[in-house]
Amino acid sequence: MRYAIDPHQSWLPLEAAAARENDPRKSGLIREVARHMEAEIKGQLEPLMATLTTEPKYHFWGNGTPMVLEGRAAVASFYSGMFSTGRQQFEVVVAKVMASSDNVVTEGQVKQVNRGRDLKAAGMSTVGDTRIEDNDLWLSNAQLVTVWPADTAGKLIGEDIYFGVNPMQTLSKISASDLPPYYKL
User: Fold this and answer.
1) Domain of 153: which CATH number?
2) Could you tell me the pLDDT band of residue 63, with boundaries at 50, 70 and 90?
3) 92 with 14: CB under 8 angstroms?
4) pLDDT digits (tens, 9 = 90+) for 19-45
5) Which of 35, 81, 111, 153 sits at 20 to 30 Å (Cα–Cα) from 42?
6) Residue 136: its pLDDT value, please?
7) 86: in domain
8) Quick one: pLDDT at residue 90?
């Protein structure tokens, strides 16, 4: 069965791309991105942080005001907050993987489940003509390009994340039966 969202599929295209890559440096960087993505989606802070340099830097673009995270403490705090709410359970449907000796670039769609109560807390009351109820589940699906720069040791310097559209503009209603059994609401 294909679910509306299946987060544990996210890193598989990266593993396949790494296996096809003949250059050991590029293959290693792609594998590091796959490890990072798997640890993030599974909510594993220590393995995730092990993929990063000592001073990571993140940029988030395309959802209004750019956001920047600098340093291990800021990045670890960001991920801890994400994990505490279950927001790491997104799926990246990776369509393209490109690698150089300094960067990996991934392109595709990012899907995420949004609870009705969370949308309401963010100030939303309707999606189109449909009133948002607390127990509703809404799926966002937005274009995503991520540049993953790396240092000479093969650790990720951070992420430069570009959203094609605001994910809140793509919401469609789903039900719990659209989620894989491992997904935690």
Assistant:
1) 3.10.450.50
2) low
3) no
4) 999 999 999 999 999 999 999 999 999
5) 153
6) 97
7) yes
8) 96
Q: Let me know if residue 185 belongs to a domain.
A: no
Whether 174 is covered by a domain: the verdict is yes
Confidence (pTM): 0.94
Q: At residue 108, does pLDDT exceed 70?
A: yes
CA-closest candidate to residue 86, choices 59, 130, 117: 117
Number of domains in the chain: 1
d(CA 2, CA 107): 21
**What integer best gives the mean pLDDT of the chain?**
95
Burial group, residue 150, by CB count within 10 angstroms (0-12, 13-18, 19+): buried
Answer whether 162's CB lies under 8 Å from 62's CB: yes
Query: HEC states along the chain?
Result: CCCCCCHHHCCHHHHHHHHHCCCHHHHHHHHHHHHHHHHHHCCCHHHHHCCEEEEEEEEEECCCCCEEEECHHHHHHHHHHHHHHCCCCCEEEEEEEEECCCEEEEEEEEEEEEEHHHHHHCCCCEECCEECCCCCEEEEEEEEEEEEEECCCCCEEEEEEEECCCHHHCCEEECHHHCCCCCCC
User: What is the structure's pLDDT at 66?
Assistant: 83
